[in-house]
Structure formats: structure tokens, C-alpha cells
Amino acid sequence: MKAFKTIEDFEETAAHLGRQGSGTTVPTVTISSGTCGRARGSDKVVEAFRSEIAKRKLADKVRLRVTGCHGFCQVEPTVVVDPAGILYQGVGVGDVPEILERTVLKGETIERLLYTDTKKKTHAREADIPFYKKQDRRILSQNKLVDPTRIDDYIAIGGYSALAKTLEGMSPEKVIAEVKTSGLRGRGGAGFPTGAKWEFCRNAAGEAKYVICNADEGDPGAYMDRSVLEGNPHSVLEGMIIGAYAIGARKGYVYVRMEYPLAIEHVALAIQSAKERGLLGPDIMGSGFGFEVEICRGAGAFVCGEETALIASIEGKRGMPRPRPPYPAQSGLWGKPTNINNVESWANIPLIVRKGGDEYAKTGTKTAKGTKIFSLVGKINNTGLVEVPMGITLREIVEDIGGGTPKGKKFKAVQTGGPSGGCIPAKHLDLPVDYDSLAKAGSIMGSGGMIVMDETTCMVDVAHYFLSFTQEESCGKCTPCRVGTRQMVDILAKIKRGEGTRQDITQLEQLAKMVKLTSLCGLGQTAPNPVLTTLRYFRDEYEAHVNEKTCPALVCKDLVQYEILESKCVGCTLCAKECASQAISGEAKKPHTIDQEKCIRCGVCMTVCPEKVAAVVKKSPAKVAVA
Amino acid sequence: MIHLNIDGRKISVEPGATVLDAARKAGVNVPTLCDHAGLSPFGACRLCIVEVEGKPGVSASCSTPAADGMTVLTDTENLRALRKGIMELLISEHPNSCLICADKMDCWENHECTRRAEITTGCKFCPQTGRCEFQNAVHQVYGDKGASTKLPSRYKNIPVERRDPFIDQDDNLCILCGRCVRACADVEMNNVLDFMHRGSQSRVGTPFNRPLTESGCVFCGACVDVCPTGSLSERVRRWEGPAESSIASTCSYCSVGCQLELGVKGGRVVDSTPRRDGSLNEGHACVRGRFSVVEFTRSVKRLKHPMVRRNGELIEVPWETAVNAVAEGILRSKPEKSAVVYSGSCSNEDVYAAHKFARDVMKTKNVDNSLRLSYGPLTDGEGAGAPAARIADLADAAAVLIVGADPDFSHPVLAHKIKKSVSQGKTRLVIMSPSASRLSPLAACEIRYAPGAEKDTLDLLRARAVRKKVAESNGHIDIAAKILRRAGSVVIVYGTGLMRRMDGAANRDAVAALAKAVSAKVMPLFSRANDRGAQEIAASFEAGGLRTPEIFQAARCAKEPLDFLYLVGEDVPPGDYKAKFTVVQDMFLPAEAGKFADVVFPVAGFVEAEGTYVNLEGRIQRARRAAKPLGTSKTDWEILAAVAKKIGAAGFEYAEASEIMTELAKNVPFFKGVTFKALSKEGATYGKPAKAGKKVKAKKRSGLRMEHPERPDKNYPFSLVAEYDEFAYKSTPLAAQVPGIARIQQPAAVVLSPRDAESMGIGSGTPVSVISRRGRLAAKAVVSQDAREGVARMVARGGEASPALVMNGLLDPASKSPDEMCAVRIEKL
What we know:
The structure holds two protein chains of two kinds.
Chain A: H1 7-22, E1 28-32, H2 35-39, H3 42-55, E2 63-67, E3 79-82, E4 86-88, H4 96-106, E5 115-116, E6 122-123, H5 130-133, H6 140-145, H7 151-156, H8 161-169, H9 172-182, H10 194-203, E7 210-215, H11 224-231, H12 233-247, E8 251-257, H13 261-276, E9 292-298, H14 307-314, E10 338-342, H15 343-355, H16 357-361, E11 371-378, E12 384-389, H17 394-401, E13 411-416, E14 422-425, H18 435-440, E15 449-454, H19 459-473, H20 479-496, H21 502-518, H22 522-526, H23 529-537, H24 539-548, E16 561-564, H25 574-578, E17 584-585, E18 593-594, H26 604-608, E19 616-619, H27 621-626
Helix pairs in contact in A: 1-8, 8-12, 8-15, 9-10, 9-12, 11-12, 11-13, 12-15, 19-20, 20-21, 21-23
Chain B: E1 2-6, E2 9-13, H1 19-25, E3 49-52, E4 59-60, E5 71-73, H2 77-93, H3 97-100, H4 133-142, E6 167-169, H5 179-187, E7 194-196, E8 203-205, H6 222-226, E9 232-234, E10 245-250, E11 259-265, E12 268-274, H7 287-297, E13 307-310, E14 313-316, H8 319-332, E15 338-342, H9 348-361, E16 367-369, H10 371-375, H11 391-396, E17 399-403, H12 407-410, H13 412-423, E18 428-432, E19 445-447, H14 454-466, H15 476-487, E20 490-494, H16 496-499, H17 504-517, E21 520-524, H18 531-540, H19 548-556, E22 564-568, E23 581-586, E24 599-602, E25 611-614, E26 619-623, H20 636-647, H21 657-667, H22 676-682, E27 684-686, E28 718-724, E29 728-729, E30 732-733, H23 734-737, H24 739-745, E31 749-752, H25 754-759, E32 767-772, E33 776-783, E34 791-796, H26 803-808, E35 821-828
Helix pairs in contact in B: 8-20, 9-18, 9-20, 9-21, 14-15, 14-17
């Protein structure tokens, strides 16, 4: 690869690559192969395509593009055949020859591989699928167009042109002004205005400065940063280089958690090829501006997503937050002014610079601009990564994009912001998604985790789950977070066991408020949110646990009972065979019974009972007693 | 200045102050736990929360900078409730009878069994009883009504860690304030302690939870001193409760002269902690000053009453009898066949009395000291030949060169000053030593040489440092030369590795020449607390008598042995002694001289006597009497005066030590104008050296040097370096009386490099025989990464004396100081 010596040099090559990309009519097979796709076998499909293309000597007639995740996890592995834009879902190795034969060569569609939505409607083209339709995929859409291991793919779609534009004629102040105009706010959770943050760092005294990309994505069920890093690492690098130029940093770090091996691989490769192309190094595109990036791997502590803990971790110390001020912008890594932004924030920068801050600010609400990526998971039909404009309502995300809750269960709540966020009930579904509205509802935007819950979710259990997580992940430094969360988890466990009292609920609420108010860092300050919001919107569930000793959602083990309906049981003996505690007895072909003394409430009997029989039911013991 | 309003009080503070600082200045008492003077703000306990007008929520005042125009409230209803909430959390994890029990002051039932309790369960069982800052904070937060808690107790039930010397760790009492971690890392720069685990499992520990002895801990005690609870506690101090009074004194274990605060209870010293304010040690201490004072002073093996040898046995006798016996012994002896050897651990008053006693009572010139054995080339009125550095110079020096010394081990508090200034980037460190040390990682450049090649290496370094045209070279010597040449201000710190050589005087001159070449100041790291004082006082008396090694030799001489040997706090090397009459006075019976001494006097320890000491930079400081002398023991000068009086010699009519100082100040120029009174007022004063020492002519680089007769050969392939025992007080190795020191110091161990050890099939702990051309010694092997191949190191135990002295008998011809090297072979036992 040739290094770009000048900006003209770059522009020439970029134009050439762009023409090559758009002018072609060669059919392209794009396979979504991020970590999630690979888990569903996409790498085998890729192999199959490769060998099949080689076997049929089609190398000139078809292009194969292995990309990062396209976001529609529910139907992985997906294959898109262009130029028609036909999307095949759940593709297996066996489908490969047929796709090549029929779709690529003959232009036919294979009905059985097409996506069918929740309304049983089949869609051939990606663009028609409801999951994609309401999204505004500015960042994620690039994933489909770019092989993350090939820098030229990114350049071909306009990548690094924002950097070229920056270095060609924008002063650092102009870049910051542009970012300020765009109204971009931090995508990592707190939503601090990015432009202002950069300005603080630029104005901070000192020669050496650092920029850091925070890719320590730790919220359970959230993976948008992984997807961007895996699928389009150059967009993040480009953002970082522009940021470094604006701030006056010469060195950057990508702090990425060790649990993301593919992301690490792709970022490392991206740094390598950017260096080879002269887009990183002592003299970027002959502009005189120099910047280096290094990868730093996190060892798996959730708290290292907190800025000051992350800095400590890079310095080789225990990942532990420290009081602010001084803010990292004044004294961060190695005591030097440091600017930390999240992966998604960095990835937005090239878009802002390319189109201008004004253009960017056209999307979104008054206080929140641009788009935001959410990972939509939980009790939802269309699991996946969704990128939506700020201000879209939760209902649109859950019902239109997500296709609602599966199996006709009733929607109960959506949890945003991971363990630091809160649960928003059905009555607030029309809430516009932006930083302030979510905060008003007691939750936070967070990094973009969105967990949907239906009537089979117990809200006490949810609070217990998230709090156990933060309790374990607390660094243990400050008293409220270390001991407070532990006491709260204990109270929640007590309530879940049916041993709670009304006093416990009051105590829990008091503790939650105290921990929120007095903790040192964001982790502790937000850890009580799941408790506080569930208490606010689902107090009745707590009270049911405490007063009636029942779990309305039938989740808390100590408060449920399994029972075999005599009228339905056909005596197939399946449940008796599978029961781990030998609590089920009965003769073949005759109704079985469960010995409640022996039963450990694992629920295996209910799982193995054939769907058409469905003789095992879960109940609240009190109600059984009444019956 | 920043002006702010705290609880309605107007206060001005310097920029950079925190809200907590401002509140304290305003006299507003905000409860804190993790905050500690000298440690950086941590913001962990959250007790110091305040409300700042215009700022949502609450802020931790310890980590909120004071800003102009700020209005702060520290004691609102909301804050009180939140503080109680936080306190309740802490109480829930801590044994809490000491915190919430209303009857705790009246509860006596359990008091008797405190010493048998395995774990801490309440106030009476806690090592911190009466001194607990956590208790105070609870009281502050809850007021007189007392604390109460609704939260269930979550006692951690972690076994108490008692595996290490001196320090116990009870995690059940720990409130994770992180003071110890910060003190260890930020203040002491040792990085031994840190937090382990996460969340509610968090605790303080060492890397991989290894014992402190294996984690690089130097037992400075800083962690114990800052611990607000009884979590980290000093084992011997555990049940003492608060001290009744405290007295400031000077540590007499080494020549740094750290200022200590001695806690006194019931007439006994119960603890010794470093003084923070205005002292040269600035709140630092080492294992000796911090942990060895109490155990050493209270050792059951101390001498309590005078003893006289009858029928081969030492038996206790009244003072009168012992003094008479000594007086008669002196009168029987010929002055030229009498001698006094005193220790550099003795105070100026004792040293002066010993010299005066030798001159006026024994009428002999044969009086010398232990300094001869460690820094012989610096005695006989010879200075170091170059301007002397003060400890404060270390912080300002652009470069520090350490030669033949390991100050981090021998003088940790001084080494800390070097470490601090190096890690702040103010000073570049160059180390010249045969082997690596704990300071090695901080060194900008290290020069390694074979023992015996000190002078050659120093001369070479000087030659390179003064060379006008410098060839680019990456050799260590050239890099070091460049650093020294360019530094501008250099301090050369050197130790026994240069002095205890048969060419020690030449080494001294080589240092002086190098110092002149790079305009450096020099700092010899004297060993004993008052070596420097002894050096000055000895120089003011008439010289010409036998020197210490010669006295020992004369005492061994079978043909014409000494008539009378007086050992004041000093022991003889092992051997067959023929002296006709030997007197010993010390805190403990010396290991060798104790075998044949005719009279033994018990001496008061340094916390039991008044006296002055001169530290290695010439600073004169007072040690004070904090406890009554044990038994009937007396100070060295009191005993000498009693004997003098018995003989009828005039000039020993002192009532107290201060009178000796007054006389001393008149006769020894160095002490001119010094009085106890003045010292009390000023804390300390610097002596006035008579001269900077003789002028040293920088010789042209000499290729020639004395051939060391103890070169290793085929049969004796190792150079054994017998290091002077820096951990000793008078004739007593600390390891002999303080078990923890024995664990840190590994007595009678020979340190070998991994490769040498492996080639002989030796591991750490293997018993070996060390054989020289003259004798053999049993020892245990210790394998160390720091050791140099072909070199075996051994600590020359005070009581056992220097093995090298026994083995090679080589003396520096100029200063008569012993050589510490000899060729040996090592055999597995």
C-alpha cells in the first residue's frame, strides 16, 4: 500500500476508489459476519462461498464482501445480494450453491430464505423490512459497505475525506466550532456536549495531551460499540484523528475490553493499515500534523468504563475512579489533559465534519441531535442493533422496529441505559428518546442498551439482577457504593424469598436515594436507578412480594410452585425422567404428580412437557392452596 | 486568596485549598475518615459531604476545590441524615459493640479475656481501643445520643493475618479508607499494598496475597500509623491503649537521626512513631525507629544489675562491689597496657566521658571506637577531603552518585529523599555497586564492578568526567560521567563498600578527587547514630595510641596481653582473649566479651537517658529520657564517673548529661556554643567542623593499585564481602533481640547469585560451609537475583564480629581499618 504524501494524493486515490465502487455492475454478495454472526455460523458460510466461487471459477463475475454486523441479530447469518438488494436470512452452508446459482447468476429470489415479519409478510429487499424501515442508519449502514480489514473499502465510501477536509483548511477552533454546532452529545451515557469537552481539553495548559476512545462497553446486553469497532474501525480512527487535531493531542488510546477479540483484531489491523497509508504517523498526509494510536486492553472490570478509572487502568493501576475535579480535560492520563469519548461519539465525528454541523443538527430534538444506536434485546421479536434519530418514541422502537413482544405476551417495561438505567413502563411508551426525557422518567440514555420486558418479567427480579451486577462490579472504593449496594441486594433477595417486610421497602428506598446522592462516581450514582424506577412504576409488584408473598410474574423461585394438571397430563413420563430431584411420580399413561417438598423449582418439567399437552403450570403457592 | 462562606462564616484560603481545608480553617468540624494530613484527597468515605450553593446534590468537601464566592453548608438536616446513612453502612460491616453500645465504657465483664480473644468482636478486644478514629467519627456524626443501626450486621469474618513480623492485619476492622494504600504508594513509594477484589469483597492486600516479607515491604510502619481503625496494628502495641504522654526524641539506631515521638504509659515506652512537623525525617521512619525501639528496650535479656565474675560465673553484685572491682583493676594495670573501646552508638556525653576517662583516669592513649571498623579512613582527624553534603542537598541535587552503599537498606529514610527527588524528575541517580539493589530500578545509570576494583572504577569515572573531548559512547561509565559532568550540583553518597577495604584511604581520596572534578559534595553514610560525633570528639583528644583492631589484637596476644580492657558498648571479634581484666558495659551481655568479662555493668537504653547525637550530616540533636532505666542500670557516663570517683580522679563531678555538654562545647570546636537548653529551643543545630579535611590532590589516573591479596583463585573462587551490620545498637545486633528484624535480615546468611547457586546445587535455605584460606563458617545460603556472580555477601554480625576480620586480618595501612573481603569457597553441608 502506498502512503499518502499529500492531501491531493489522498483525494486522487479516494476518487478513484469511489468510482471503482459505484460504477460497478458486478453482483456483490455481502455477508454479515461480526461476532454475533460468527456465533451463528457466518464464517462457515463465508468459507462455503469462497470455495464455491473458486470451484465455479466465478471470481471475476461475483464479488464477495465479508463485513461486520448489519444489526439484525434475530435472523443471522444474513446474506445480501446486490445490486438487487435481496436479503436472505438464516443462511446455512447448504444454501450457498443455490444462492450463487439462482440469485447471483440468474437474478431469481429464493422464497424460503426470505425474511417474514411478525405479520407473516415476506420481504425480499432489505430496505422493505420493517426492522430497517424506521431506522436512520448513518453509522451502522457503513458496516454493510465496508470490509473492516480493507482500508480502501472505507476510503471508497468517502472515508477519511473528513480528515482530509480538516487538514486541508480547517483550524482546530473551526473543527471544535463545527462539533459544537452539530449539538453532538456524548454517546457513552452522560451526554456531555462533545464540542465543549474538546474545547476544555484544547484550552487546558500543557504541551502533551491525549485522546482516548472508550470501548469498554460493559452494560449487560449492550453491544453497539463492539459492532462499530468490528465492522468499521476506521470511522472511529478517523474521528479520533480529527479530535486529536482539534484538541492538540499527539497520542491516542483505544481502550477496548478483552472480551472483544474480533474488535481488537480489527482495530489493530485498522491502525496498521492507516499507518501504511500515512493516515496515522508523524506527518499525516503531509500536513505536518502527527498522531499515533495504541490499543489498551481492559481486563474485564465494568468500572473501567468510568473515565478516571479507565485512565488509571491505562496507567497500569487498579481501575478505580478518583474524585473530579480535576477533570480529565485538565489532568487525565499521566496527569496530562485528556479527552475521552465513546466509540459511537468518535464515529459520528467524520459525519459531522463531512456534512457540516448545521446539517447534522437537522436531525433530532432541541437538545439531542443526530442518531443513536440502541441494542434492542430482551422479550422482543426483532432483536438487533437499531440506529434511530433522537426524539423517536420508545413505542416506535419497540413496536415498529422491534415488532413487539413475542408470543403475544403483554409488554411491561423497557429498561434503558443498562445497570445504571431505569425501567420505563408501558404508560411512558410515547416518551421521545433523548437524554432529558429519559432522565425525567428516572432512567438514562446510557450507552444504548434497551432491554424489553413483558408480563413474564418480575420487576423485583430485574432490580435484583442489575443491582447484583453493579454490586459485584463496584470497585469498592467509596462506602455508599461498596456497602450500600450490598445491603440493597440483600434486601432485594430477602423480598424475592418472600421474607421481606414493608419496612424493607422503605429501607431499600432510603438506601437507594442515599447511594445515588453520595457515591463517588457514576457507577454508584446510577446503580440505584433500577431499584428507584421499579419502585416508582411497579411498587405493586414489591408489595405483592411483601404482603401477599406472591410473585405476580411467577419468576421468584421461592414464591412459585409447579403443578401437573390432572386433566391434561397424558402420562408420557417425560417430566418424571428429566426431573433432577425425582420429585415427579406417576405410572405411565396416568397423570403424574409433583412432590412439592422435593421440588427445587427448576422448571424442567414445564420445558419438557410437549407443547400440545402443556400439562405443567406455574402458580403462586397461595393460589394453589385456595384452589 | 479565595473568599468563601462556610456555615455563615467568612473565610479566605489560598488557591488550591479544598472546601474541607477552608472549613477547618473556619473552625467548622466536618467528619472525615479517609482524609489524612500528608495524603492526597481520596474521596472514598463520603462522610465529608457538604452542600454547595448552586450545585446540585452534595459534594465531598475533601476533593472539592474551594472557589471564590462559594457558599457552603456543612450541617443541614439533609446532610446529617445522609452522613448517618453512610455511617450505618460502615457500622454494618464492622464489629459494632465498640461503636453503638451505650454501655461500652462501663462494661468490664469481658475485659479480662482480651488477650485471649482470637478475633476482634468489640471495643475491648480491639488493638485500637481508645485510639480509634472511626469511633470518634461515629461519635461526631451521631452526637451524644449514640449510634443506632437498622441494617443487619454483615460481619466479614475474615481470619486475622498474623504471618508477618510486627504487623497484624484484621480485615474485619477495615473500612477501606485507603489511607494505608496511599501512604505505601504515594508517600513511601513502596507500592506494597493495594486494594484487591471488587465490590463488597474489596480488601487491602499485597500482590497475589503473598506475605509482606515477600512483597517488598520494608516495614516502615507508615500504613499502621495512618490506619484509623485497628485493622493494621503493631503487634506488640496491641493492648496498650492510648499513651499517657509523649516525648520527642532522636532515634539512635543509625546515623540519619530521625526524630521520634515516644509514647509513654505507666513509665514505659509503648510506641515510637516518626515525627512529622519540622523534623528532618518528615514523618518517615524505618523498621528500626518504628518497630524496634519498644521490643529492644523491653527485651527480657537486658542486663538489670552489675555482675562480677567469680569462679568463672557472672553473678549479680551491688554497684559498690562492681565499681570497686573495676577501680582496683585499673590501679593494678599499666596505662600503656590498658585500652578503651567505645561504640559509635554512644551519645556525645558518653563518648567525651570515655575519652576523658582514658586520659585522666586510666592515663592511656589507647582509646578508640567502632567507627574505626566501619569508616576507619575518616577517623584520625581526616575529613572526607571534600565539602560535606547535608541531607537537604539530596533533594536539590541534579545528580546523586551512590558508591559502595545500599542506603535503601541501611539508611531507608535518607534513601527515601533520593527516591522522592528522583521520581519527581529533579534528580538523576547513578549507582556504583558490585550488585543490584532496591534502588536499581530508579537509577539512570548503574556501574557494576568487582569488589576490590573500587578505586580503579572511581578513577576511571573521574577521568571520563573531566575529559574535554567526549567520544559518543554508550558505556555505563561514559553515561555516568556525562550525567555527573552536566549536572551542576552533585552529591556523592558512599558507604562501607569503599571504606572497609585495605585501600580504604585511597578510595576516600578517589572520591574526593572525583568530587572536586564534578564539584560535588560528599556524604559518607556513617553507620552508628553518633559516629560523626565520635569522629569529632576523638579528633580533639591526643592521638597516638592503639587503634581498635590493634587493641583487639593486643587483647588476644598470648605473650604480652593487655592488662585492662574497657569495652563501652562494644564487643570484640571472636577469638581467644588473654586480657587480664575486662570490663563491659552495655544493655545486653555482648556475645564474645560476655564470655570472659570480669565485670559487667548494665546500661540504660537510649529512651532511658538524656544525651545528644550528631547525625551523618553534622546535625546535633537531643535524645530524651522517656522511661526509667531498667533495674539499676545507669548511663555510660554515670558508670565511668562512678569509677573515676572511686579512684579519686577529679573532673567527673557531673550531676547530669547537660553539664558534660557544656564542658564538651568548650573543648571541642565542633560543639562550640551548644547547650541542652539551646537544643531544646531550636530542636537541633549544626556543628562547626574544624576543617573540611585535608586537601586532596587529584592524581593523574593511575593504572596501578594495590594488588588485593585476597583475589579469588581456583581453590577459593568467590569474593566474600562481609558487610558491616547496620542493624545494631552498640554491641547488640537488633536481630538478636527483635525477632521480626531477624526475619527481615536473615542472620548468618550468605547471599549468592542464582547461577552460582545453581552450579553448586544450592537453593535458598541450604546450609553451607564458607571456607577461606584461614577458617570456616557455617551459614545458610540465600539466592538473590540482585547478587553478582562470583561474589558472596554476608552481613558481619555485630556480636559475631566480621568474618572477614577473623579470616583475613588485613588492615588499611593508613587508617588501620579492617578489610571486609576475602576469597572463599562454598561447600554444601
